[in-house]
Specification:
295 residues; Beta-Lactamase; 3 domains; 55% helix; three-stranded antiparallel sheet
C-alpha cells in the first residue's frame, strides 16, 4: 500500500512539474526579453504572448498561475508603466486572457482527440474489412458512371491478378473478362441501370498470366434524387474452387453410373426416418422410390 501511494505521489509530482514549470519558464523568458528591449518594446503584449504559448493545453490552473506571475513581475520590473487603473488592469487583462486561452485550447485539444479517435476507428474498420475480404476471397468495387472510373479494393485486384495494374475504366475491365463471357457482362451493365434490385452474375476472368478463374458478382446501382443511376457498386467472389469441386462431383456421378451399367449393379438407399427405400441401378438414371416401409 505504501509503495502504491509513493508511486501515485511521484506521478502527481511529475504531472505538476510538466504543467507548471513551462509556464514559469515562459513568464521568466518574457521578463528577461522585456528587460533587454525595455527601450523599444512595451512589456505587457510580450507577457500576454508568453501566456498563450506556455499555458496552451495545460488547463486553467497553470493559466491562472501564469497570469498571477505576469501581473506581479510587470508591476515589479516596470513600475513606471503602471496602467490607468493600476494593478486591477493587469489582473483583469492577464486573468481574462488566461481563462480565454485555457478554454479555447482545451476545446481544440478535445476536438483533436475526437478526430484522432474517429481516424483510429476508421483505420481499424478498414483493416478489418481488408482482412475479411482476403479471408473470404471477396473483393468490392465502385464505378462512377459520369467519368466511368472504377475504384477497386485490394482483394478485388488480387482476384483479377492485377495488384499493381488496376483497370481504370469499364472497357479496361472488360478486357479482363473471358471473351465468351464479355457479352454477359455487357448485358448485366445494361440491365442494372433499369432495375432496382441487385443482379447476380457468374463469369470467367483471365489473369495476365493466362489463368482462368471463375467469379460471382453481386451488382447494384446507386441513384440520385431524380432516380437516375450515378454509381454502380458490386462485390465479387472467387468461386473457382467451388466450380471445380462441382465439376469433379458431376464427373464422379457420370463415372459411377457408367460403371453400374457395365457391371449390372445398383445402389440401395434406405431413409430410416421416413422408412423409404431408393434404388439406383441399371436403366435408372435418377433416384426412384420403389417401396415404403412401415414399422
Amino acid at each position: 500500500m505504501a509503495r502504491r501511494l509513493a508511486v501515485l505521489s511521484r506521478s502527481a509530482a511529475i504531472n505538476v512539474v510538466r504543467q507548471y514549470v513551462p509556464v514559469v519558464l515562459g513568464i521568466a523568458g518574457a521578463a528577461g526579453l522585456s528587460l533587454l528591449l525595455r527601450r523599444y518594446l512595451y512589456p505587457r503584449p510580450l507577457f500576454l504572448l508568453s501566456l498563450v504559448f506556455s499555458i496552451w493545453g495545460r488547463g486553467l490552473g497553470p493559466g491562472l498561475v501564469g497570469a498571477a506571475l505576469a501581473t506581479v513581475i510587470v508591476r515589479l520590473l516596470f513600475p513606471e508603466l503602471l496602467p490607468p487603473y493600476g494593478l486591477f488592469t493587469d489582473i483583469t487583462v492577464f486573468g481574462l486572457g488566461a481563462v480565454a486561452i485555457s478554454a479555447f485550447s482545451d476545446s481544440k485539444l478535445r476536438a483533436e482527440v475526437r478526430r484522432k479517435r474517429v481516424e483510429d476507428q476508421l483505420r481499424m474498420s478498414e483493416r478489418m474489412l481488408i482482412d475479411a475480404q482476403r479471408l473470404a476471397q471477396v473483393g468490392s468495387w465502385e464505378r462512377t458512371l459520369e467519368t466511368d472510373a472504377i475504384c477497386w479494393s485490394d482483394e478485388m485486384l488480387r482476384i483479377l491478378g492485377r495488384p499493381n495494374e488496376p483497370p481504370a475504366h469499364f472497357l479496361t475491365f472488360l478486357s479482363c473478362v473471358h471473351p465468351e463471357d464479355q457479352e454477359k457482362i455487357r448485358e448485366t451493365d445494361y440491365q442494372i441501370r433499369l432495375t432496382a434490385g441487385p443482379i447476380v452474375v457468374e463469369y470467367r476472368i483471365v489473369r495476365p498470366d493466362g489463368e482462368v478463374r471463375f467469379v460471382r458478382s453481386v451488382v447494384g446501382v446507386i441513384r440520385n434524387d431524380q432516380d437516375a443511376p450515378v454509381r454502380i457498386v458490386g462485390a465479387t467472389q472467387d468461386v473457382t474452387e467451388q466450380v471445380k469441386a462441382g465439376d469433379l462431383l458431376r464427373e464422379s456421378e457420370v463415372r459411377l453410373k457408367a460403371a453400374q451399367r457395365l457391371a449390372h449393379v445398383g445402389n440401395l438407399d434406405w431413409d430410416i426416418k421416413t422408412g423409404r427405400l431408393f434404388w439406383i441401378g441399371r436403366n435408372v438414371s435418377n433416384f426412384r422410390q420403389v417401396t415404403e416401409l412401415h414399422f
